Amino acid sequence: MAAPRRALEGLDPLAGAVPPGLAGLALAAGLIGGGAAIAFREVLAAISRLFYGLEIERMASATQALPWWWVPLVLCLGGLGLGLWVRWLLPGARPHGVAEVIDERYGGERLTLGRGVKAALAAAATLGLGGSAGREGPVVHLGASLGGWLSERFQVPQAWRRTLLAGGVAAAVAASFNAPLAGSFFALEVVLGRYAFSAFAPVALAAVAGTLLSHLRYGAVPAFVVPPDWKIASLWELPAFIALGVLAALLALLFTRAVFWAERGFRLTRLPPWARPMLAGLAVGLLSLLDPRILGVGYEATSTVLANGIALHALLLLLGLKLLATALTLGGGFVGGVFSPALFLGAALGGAIGQLLALAGWVTLTDPGAYALVGMGAVAGAVLGAPVSTIVMMVEFTGDFALTVAVASAAVVASLLARRLGLRSFFHAVLIRRAAAQSSSR
């Protein structure tokens, strides 16, 4: 007896038609979201050049030629201006980012284009001034806001709206990091919370459109360059990767709590919320006197760690300074993401573990610095709560496939352990904390 058609469709991985109208709008969302991500990077670069003379990726080098007081002064006064911007122009007088995108999925307040642009400008100022944060959160929020704006313009059904939100996110991430697959999986894993062909096809279409725009502007260059001879020399190193995943989960949990501890500490100062970024900026600026590589997104330092170019003692110091600087930046009311700091922290942790193993004579990889790449995937996967997209990101960011097994092992272990410890993701932790605060105030 032949199986019913409905049963057979349930076994079809491509089941679920994609309406031409949705595909066309997804393409439009990709072009708009990708263009917005490029515009965000250009504004960010312009602010960095204005205050430091170089683009944000080289901010640490730029500060070497400046007076010692310049960075603390810029971050302090910039923090004051940013605090007033958030106070007057953003709903709830608080920073907006990925948490707000997830909140809409659960029935929270709808995203609007106006607040998306305002939040993006605040984030560009945060990073351009030297605040220790990431640029992925702002572009995700901006891309989702543009997808929401597009759905409002065409009055699409709610199911289409969610797909267009994800499409805008995928395009923005893909254009920002030259990673179309990672952008697609991140949108499905974090924004939609499901995998299905009916969702994947339009989201991937949007990501490809965003990537093409990025290629036209920046070229097809990986975000990080790794040595071409890295490989896993022995599977006996698998326990070391798993151990690194365990440490990465603990670091992700510490990172999340540090941001909340800093936020609580600033509240205890009894300063009004709009004045707290001024104090946070001064603190981060003073910390940068110890090592300016903690400023901004930290890609310059992350690339150096990947090249095994930082000594063990300096790496451990950087790990602590970056953790503290990011907690002060985000907890103090600046606007930014957590992905870039997670990459930095993961690289520092992995690089330190790799050097320690090399000193002990236990490492057999071509270069101990390869552990930095594994650490990046592990910490970022646990912080974002998205191990699949993070694994794909590591491959696309570096163009390196040789360490995929190592990255996957550490990222999955880190994400699973983080969830066991109560950390689904940094963004969910923010939403839970916000809901608890609202309940207690009633």
Series of H and E elements: HHHHHHHHHHHHHHHHHHH
Broad shape: globular
Strand content: under 5%
Record field, number of beta strands: 0
Structural overview:
The protein is mainly α. It has helices spanning about 5-10, 20-50, 60, 70-90, 100-105, 115-130, 135-155, 160-175, 180-190, 195-220, 240-270, 275-285, 300-305, 310-330, 340-360, 370-385, 385-400, 405-420, 425-440. It folds into two domains: about 20-220, Clc chloride channel, CATH 1.10.3080; about 235-430, Clc chloride channel. It is about 70% helix and about 0% strand.
Topology:
Blueprint: H1 5-10, H2 20-52, H3 59-62, H4 70-89, H5 98-105, H6 113-129, H7 136-154, H8 158-177, H9 180-192, H10 197-218, H11 238-268, H12 276-287, H13 299-306, H14 312-331, H15 339-360, H16 370-384, H17 387-398, H18 404-420, H19 426-441
Helix pairs in contact: 2-6, 2-7, 2-8, 2-10, 4-6, 4-12, 5-19, 6-7, 7-8, 8-9, 8-10, 9-10, 9-17, 11-14, 11-15, 11-16, 11-18, 12-14, 13-15, 14-15, 15-16, 16-17, 16-18, 17-18
